[in-house]
Amino acid sequence: MPSGAPVLNRQFVRTRVSLNGHIVSVVSESSLPAAPSLTLRHMIETHLAAAGPRVLTAHDRLDTAVSWVHSSEIFEIGPLLTGGELLLTTGLGLAGLDAGTRRHYVRDLAERGVAGLAFEVGRSFNAVPEEMIREGSAAHLPIIELSRIVPFIEVCRTATTEIVSQEVGDLRLRSGLDATLHDDLARGAAAAMIEHIAEVTGTPLVVVGSGGALLAVHGVDDDRAAWRVVDGAIAAQPITLRGREIGQVFAGPSASSIPAARVQALLGVGVGPLAAVLTRSDRRSSIGAQLVAELVDRRPLRRADLLARLSTSGLPVGDKSVLVPVAGHAPDTRMVETVLSAATDLGGLVHATVDATVFGLVLTTDAGFTDPAEQVRTALADDPRRLGRLTVVVGNPCPLADTSAGPGLALTLADELRICSERLGVAVELRSAGSTAADIRAARELVCDAAARELSDGLRSELSRIIAPLVRQDAASSSQLVHTLEVHLTHGCSATRSAETLHIGRQSLYQRLDRIRALLGFDPTAPAMYASILLAINVLHSRTVDQR
Fold first, then answer.
1. Which ranges constitute the DSSP H helices of 188-302?
2. Are both 417 and 494 inside the same structural domain?
3. Is the backbone of residue 434 left (phi > 0), alpha (psi -120 to 50) or beta?
4. Which of 149, 468, 486, 533 shows its CA 20 to 30 Å from the CA of 77?
């Protein structure tokens, strides 16, 4: 049974100080009474309304928690109470007593922590005795005068039923949240924990590390909004591990009617699993993997949520940071993960495997003169651990600056990851069809190849007819004329580079090109023909894959 002791809610004050030239946040704490689940005001307005209640004293104590409703006419009832009760009486036990004894009665109730005294007049007393009113004011004990007769047993029954029902409901709510959080803990899903706590409490949440840095947020638009949650928190709990505080979780005000005391209790359920997941050795990689998986599923995340989770994953995001999406395929996904790790030195990496494809976000910095996508492509291509059966597509850079507070950045990243996945399919097909394409490609390089797969049957047939003589010759004599033309065009018609790639002499290359011109009846290396010829070869590759 609740003791009726005041429920305490931590209130935190954030100050900013300079440490070695850097601004850090220091969070201090004080304890203040929290809004209870069922208050004396609620009891008066709900369960005593039919009795014509009138509050005579301590109007500022109507938000006191009520733990039980009890009726008694015993004068010496005080020692039998534990605090937090709403006591109902007709004053029968006070009739015939002197004023000093009645004052002692009120003072004793106040000292026991009774939430309020409801005094029915008209039976034992025509009005609440004046000395009791004065003592109630002095002792800050709310005294409520009831001018109409109501069955106390009915008031006790309905009020107590509500109290018990709420306690049972709270217990079920905490139990359900605890089970959900332990499922999240098993998966290492710290972000899911924050989201589930926020859903149950109906409040925005902010997790601040012991050093004052934002670790995770949910339900706020940016870091300023996150700090406003900290400053105006209605409930908060320290996150501790082996007696050491490693952070704080704050719940901000919301439109929800859930009382602050219940929010405080629910935060208490969450801090244990949060402490465990935040200190796991693989915490950063698991948080990053969960984030990438959610983006692949196109889950809308607010900018503040996204940046906080990237930071918690170990990526030092800043105003000049750029995220470059990547997608990779190999017989063993660990081959892709190994190569992607080469991009870590650029700034950081988070990745996840979804349906046998490895998706990642590489953090780099917009230096103003270097293409971030090319930076990533070069880092991956130069990695000596790269194996031949691996294919990776590097997507378009996504700057973090000048993005909206809402889910725009997350949706942009989701779209770019989807494009990487689609282009990865094209790149794998090209390599399967015998194309000379490199194993590390930029998504923008593959737009034409993707477009070839979207053309109408009529256009595909027209393009196929352009190089049909070469295809027939290759089928008849294995002359590799189509392959030779593709290599020559993709190398800018450089005879030296084309011959090196084909592993033939320049004279042999010239002979093949002459044969190609003779079969086609025109010069396919003329600049005006580049696009049509390459598109025709792309259509050929896509048809070769379809036939397989």
1. 190-201, 223-231, 260-278, 283-296
2. no
3. left
4. 149
Q: Which residue segment(s) compose the domain that 97 sits in?
A: 40-150
Beta bridge partners of 54: 145
Helix intervals (H) in 73-114:
99-111
CATH number at residue 191: 3.30.450.40
Give 486's contacts (C-beta < 8 A, 6+ positions apart).
Answer: 435, 436, 534, 537
Residue 170 lies in a domain: yes
Q: Which residues of the chain have pLDDT under 50?
A: 1-36, 281, 548
Q: Give the number of other CB atoms < 10 A from CB of residue 457.
A: 7
Is there a contact between 487 and 512 (Cβ–Cβ < 8 Å)? no
What is the β-pairing status of strands 22-33 and 8-19?
antiparallel
Q: Looking at the structure, do residues 432 and 353 belong to the same domain, yes or no?
A: yes
What is the number of domains present in the chain? 4
Instruction: Give the list of residues 6+ apart from residue 171 with CB closer than 8 angstroms, or none.
Output: none
Distance (Å) of CA 301 to CA 123, 134, 249, 329: 64, 57, 20, 26
Residue type, 208: V
Q: Which of 153, 96, 103 is nearest to 125 (CA)?
A: 96
- Chosen domain end from 432, 449, 466: 449
Give the Cα separation of 175 and 262 in Å (integer).
13
Instruction: List the beta bridge partners of residue 375.
Output: none
Closest CA to 242 of 284, 277, 275: 275
Q: Is residue 32 part of a domain?
A: no
* pTM score, whole prediction: 0.49
Do 251 and 333 fall into the same domain?
A: no
pLDDT tens-place string over residues 429-476: 777 666 555 688 899 888 887 887 778 888 888 988 989 999 999 888
**Residue found by looking up tokens 């925005």 in the block:** 204
* Residues 245 and 311 occupy one common structural domain: no
Same domain, 305 and 435: yes
Nearest Cα residue to 392 out of 367, 373, 410, 412: 373
SS3 assignment, position 236: strand
Please report whether residue 353 resides in a domain: yes
Return the closest-CA partner of residue 73 out of 114, 112, 107, 117.
Answer: 117
